[in-house]
Amino acid sequence: MRPIISVQDLTKTYEGGFTALKNINLDIHEGEIFGLLGPNGAGKTTLISIICGIVNPGEGSVTVDGFDIIRNYRETRARIGLVPQELTTDAFETVWHTVSFTRGLFGKPSNPAHIEKVLKALSLWDKKDSKIVTLSGGMKRRVLIAKALSHEPEILFLDEPTAGVDVELREDMWNVVRELRSSGVTIILTTHYIEEAEQMADRIGVINNGEIIVVEEKKELMRKLGIKQLTLDLQTALKKVPPALKKHNLELTGDGMHLVYTYDTMAERTGITALLNDVGKAGIKFKDIHTRQSSLQDIFVTLVKRSS
User: Tens of pLDDT along 261-283?
Assistant: First the structure.
């Protein structure tokens, strides 16, 4: 799969001396949903802004569909749709006018059928003649997405697209994203709702302190860095872990009613069979057993802590 965006040795230092990005190397594949995760101030928005031509790059290079973002600005910008975090809209224009006008800014001919399709997909059709100032925050965010899609871009950046949006609208928006992806549009997503990235993304990149600390297929990332925990719900409370079970590195919960065993999902053997045998030999009886797999949230927190 060819990279539709290629970032090579990108470093960005602002006038005050703050280095927002440090030697970033990243390829984003055509047709994928790429989740870019990182804490506030990690460099996500700076990276997106450089690729989209909003912020000047420092050192390094960025190409979009083979075109350099500096030398071929018009070609690269025409291929990109951006949904920013901020709700910046033409307050006193109608929804229809502002979305149609944005299409014209990219040199695209008038196409009412396409604008209608976009507005209907985002549940904005009944608001097409409403002035944006009269809309709710969630509706305004839908308008931003409609504007980003007005010129039929090949690449769509969604920078915290569901911030402040209700659950129902969030689901509608992700349905639109899935449809766009199935039509061949490449999606780059940043979000504070990590469960969204876990649900939507094909690959995950984590950035912290201006550096990319991991880029991996989502499933492979969770396989490599995920842990599983097995919990035994005991029939009788324990005051401490018996010496015979020390080798299993068990954790006894505060009430003494649960033994927790953490094991590596990539290990050749989990050790569960040996654990259960030793629990039986120690005369400990349990009434239930259940397991828990690490979430992407757990992995993200661990990676950020390691790199800080």
Answer: 887 766 667 788 888 888 988 88
Residue 34 or residue 191, greater confidence:
34
Classify burial at 216, counting beta carbons within 10 Å of its beta carbon; exposed 0-12, middle 13-18, buried 19 or more.
middle
Taking the whole predicted model, whether its pTM rises above 0.85 is answered as: no
Confidence of residue 151 (pLDDT cuts 50, 70, 90): very high
Domains and CATH numbers, the chain: 3-222 (3.40.50.300), 227-294 (3.30.70)
SS (H, E, C) 214-236: EEEEHHHHHHHHCEEEEEEEECC
Confidence check: pLDDT of 237 > 80:
yes
What is the C-alpha to C-alpha distance for residues 244 and 282, in angstroms, rounded to an integer? 7
| Residue indicated by tokens 């014209």 | 104
CB contact at 8 A, 103 and 73: no
Contact 294, 227 (CB under 8 A): yes
